[in-house]
Design brief:
This is TrkH family potassium uptake protein. It is found in: Cell membrane. The protein is mostly helical and 479 residues long. The chain has one domain. The chain contains 19 helices and two strands. The protein has helices at 5-30, 32-51, 65-76, 86-89, 92-107, 109-121, 126-136, 157-185, 190-205, 224-238, 241-250, 259-283, 295-312, 324-336, 349-364, 378-406, 410-421, 436-451, 453-460; strands at residues 369-371, 374-376. It is globular and about 70 Å long. The termini are far apart.
Amino acid sequence: MATDPAGSLMRRIPTTLRGWWDGLRNLTTSSPARFAVLVFVSLILVFTALLSLPASAADGRRVPLADAVFTAVSTICVTGLTTVDIATTFSAFGKVVIFVGVNIGGMGVLTLASILGLVISKRLGLRAKLIAASDSNPLRTHGGPVNEGQTVRLGEVGQLLRTVALSTLLIEALVAIALYPALVMAGIGALEALWEAPFYAAMAFTNTGFTPNPGGLEPFADDYFLLTTLMVGVFLGSIGFPVIYALFKHYWHVRRWPLHTKLTIITTVLLFIAGAAAFLALEYNNPKTFGSMDAWDTTFQAFFLSAMTRSGGFAVVDIGELYGSSLIVGSMLMFVGGGSASTAGGIKVTTLAVLALAVWSEAKGRQSVEVFGRRIPSDVQRVALSVVAWGATIVALSTIVIAQISQEPIADVLFDVISAFGTVGLSTGLTAELSDPAVYVMAVTIFMGRIGTVTLAAAVAATSRSQLYSLPVERPIVG
């Protein structure tokens, strides 16, 4: 009996593809967290390949692999740390690749995928809503039933996606329009400013901090309009898309804002003011930073530095010249970062707010954590504590490894590691001097910081199981 190997092979190919497709569908529904990690890794590999092309380099030569990998990670994870000078190392094509990458990473890869699906199919199924919802609320990455008592419910995911797309396009466009005349008046050519204005706008809104021109922001150190515009872009990107959605939905009806929105905005403003006050008090007599400025310049630059250490990544003063005390303040601000489901990194301001409220409630002897007429459940408090613990562990391990490899001062290493974990992008100058092994460790730190500790823990955890019994209680001594 004659056989047809070619026909048999053709029949097996669709079966294999169908098996892969079914596996991917199961992955996205059973664990959106693992799917998020997979998509991030895939994008990093794609952008590494693009940035490794000779066309991406300004001199026509391939960028070294370690630098290409690190730049791709920093781009997709909207960090802004770099081992090379973006302005002089990459060609126009390479900068376009970076521009596209930060917008993909800023919106969130799962959110972007859902937006594309919404555009193509004109509707979102439950599967797509679950994927998108895991970007708007990391708690959804865990298996098991979905708690609908959240900032954005599944029924509102489609509206949230439209808000993400429209707010990204609108805010970046408005920031670019505002920046264009400022760049021209600063001496940038009219045609060149047409490119640099959108680039700066994207870097501000996505909280990345790459600069397209040599010297970074130093040529614009006295241009307060330009710097203020960048701060506004950074602030809007750092508060998070759920907050932008809530503000758009309820406008200025503060009483109707969700608790998440209130906590995010209040904590963000308090940290912005407290950070500026700390930098002003610590650096006013430093001749290498604020010491040579008058009172107005010093105050403005203190607020600018406070905004950028939260996640913006732009710098006017040399970070390496800050006093050690200021580096510690900057590290604290970077570790906290911005709002949840935003373009900023860190443990998030709501995490800090929840823990602060829990400590205050414990000091007052209250049985529950309450604020603005709402009670914060214990599971949210446990997640907040876990986020801080995991974040501190990642920072500590990365600092130890990089300090051992580089043998650099621990203060500089710690600052740059926290900048990497918080996807901030500020550097004492250490990152550009690291060896390849240390560069890869720093890239992993960036990746874990951007993915988020909640998502990362859910990605490696087994499927949640219900427990139908309760163990006896015993209280260990604490404190």
